[in-house]
Amino acid sequence: MDQIIVHCEANGAVLTCTEGMSFWGGVNAQTGVVQDAHHPQFGQSLAGKIVLMPTSRGSCSGSGVLLELALNGNAPAALVFHEAEDILTLGALISARMFDRPLAVLQLSKASYARLSACDHARIEDDRIVADGESITLERLNTQAMTLTPADKAMLMGVEGEAVQLAMEVIQIMGAAQGAARLIDVSRVHIDGCIYAGPANLTFAAAMEKMGARVKIPTTMNAISVDFDNWQDQGVPALFGTPASQLASAYVSMGARPTFTCAPYLAEDRPKAGEDIGWSESNAVIFANSVLGARTAKHPDFFDLFIALTGRAPLSDVYLPENRQARVCITIDLPENYDEAIWPLIGWVAGQQSPDQVPRLEGLGGAEMNEDDLKALCAAFGTTSAAPMLHIQGVTPEGDQASRADAAHLEITKDMLAVAWDELNSGPEQVDLVALGSPHFSFSESGRFAALIEGRKCTPATACIITLSRETEQQLEGEGVIEILETAGVLVLRDLCWCSISEPVFPPAARHLVTNSGKYAHYAPGLSGRTVRFASLADCARAAVEGHLVGGLPNWLK
């Protein structure tokens, strides 16, 4: 079916992206230029163009980036997909519905998508798209097809106020686009839209707060863009620190808990297997589905708040058991004598192998993976795949369930891992910054790094920074681990994380960084403008002390 999801007339050059992209970290929010160094369309501008891509991938914050582009005039004229897509669709919907800055969103059949991708120029008019002599008729989205309960209808009629009415309107549209038959109750929400990607995030939150928005169910908050209590002492300019802290405050005033972590699954109170939740933040969604066995779609920023206001979400995607089945089976050729750096590497390559389908990883059952390993793998997977979960045979709760009968069978070889290692390592041997905690470091990761660096000192020329949650910080202080880290010269930061950090908290003089995070190794070149090395935790500790790190493949990949 060729369908128009968000209606708007548009006219522009056609730009076909050969693979999906994450707008957060992948597209400059001020200019619309692709900044993901790993993407085939790196350096090209999306502004004013009819942009085709199979679907989006990566961060849930892409909706905020698209809204920012729409408000500053550098958004695409239209977005065209041939697979299901929520994140950018939601951003376009909010831009049109709340701020009168419409941009079209279409979902085409693969055949129509292929025809359009061969064209140089296109225009969208009424219910069709015309391009180089081609004309494709578009059907309007039927928002009335989904069954609503009396309580849903009451919210839609405005009985619970303007904010809830808006939330239910958007939920109904998104549910229809997803093909949901009805809505379901969810027990908790994790808000990702509290990261300050630009003025648009605050504009949205302030508008919702002014409407009287108040969350209905327990709601936690993602990492924010500053240390909420200490940003002024850290030298953060008021021009950035004030709106970033105001954004966090807006969500707190709407009833969200100031947990400020991108790893909510590390909390003592975390979802149970089979629990329906409404989470954003890509790594958290993938971990919750894959490792905990909870159920959540990868909800876009802004939509997370709407779910929190209503307690309702569309019954679609991996809320449905049949959509949790593996559609791709990937056999891993596990090298001998590997270290923990292999897990984010496998996750990153698995996402490339399965860019928009739920995969099952095979051959890892005897590897004795711990939760830190799984966290690292899931986070890296989320940078290269749009899928909201994965399975690991013999490891994760649903890893031994049958895959679909038509599942593709692929493999990840040692040579493929070696190529990936080289792709994630662009920097020289000199190391100016060791960046740890993307996602937020756990209690056990912090303890392991403290053991590696205890009794040693970071070289003055190399900064070493760990980001973590308030809860983890408190636990570490009670065990004396923070003191060990700080004595060694490690800076421990709470509230913010590496995907939202900015100067001067990010050391301005640092040009070359190393990280043990596959997620940050992927995003850092575009987000920070620095060269990046990817390494094991032990090598990160060595780099912090010595100020350099020998290049090349690790022994287990040679």
Tell me the layout of helices and strands:
Layout: E1 3-6, E2 10-16, H1 23-26, E3 50-52, H2 62-72, E4 78-81, H3 87-99, E5 104-107, H4 110-117, E6 121-125, E7 128-131, E8 134-137, E9 139-140, H5 150-156, H6 162-178, E10 183-185, E11 189-191, H7 199-210, E12 219-221, H8 238-253, E13 278-279, H9 282-292, H10 303-310, E14 312-314, E15 328-332, H11 342-353, E16 359-362, H12 371-384, E17 391-392, E18 408-412, H13 414-424, E19 433-436, H14 443-453, E20 463-468, H15 470-479, H16 481-487, E21 491-494, E22 512-515, H17 518-528, E23 531-534, H18 537-546
Parallel strand pairs: 1-9, 2-3, 3-4, 4-5, 11-12, 11-13, 15-16, 15-18, 16-17, 19-20, 19-22, 20-21, 22-23
Antiparallel strand pairs: 1-5, 2-6, 6-7, 7-8, 10-14
Helix pairs in contact: 2-3, 6-10, 7-8, 9-12, 11-12, 11-13, 12-17, 14-16
Q: Report the sheet with the most strands, covering strand number, pairing sense and barrel closure.
A: 9 strands, mixed
The separation of the N and C termini measures 48 Å
> Measured on Cα atoms, how large is the radius of gyration?
23 Å
Strand content: 15-25%
Residue windows where pLDDT falls under 50 for at least 5 positions: none
- Compute the number of strand runs: 23
Shape: globular
* Main sheet: strand order: 8-7-6-2-3-4-5-1-9
Secondary-structure-based class equals alpha/beta
Number of helix segments? 18
Average of per-residue pLDDT values: 96
Helical amount among residues, as a percent range? 25-40%
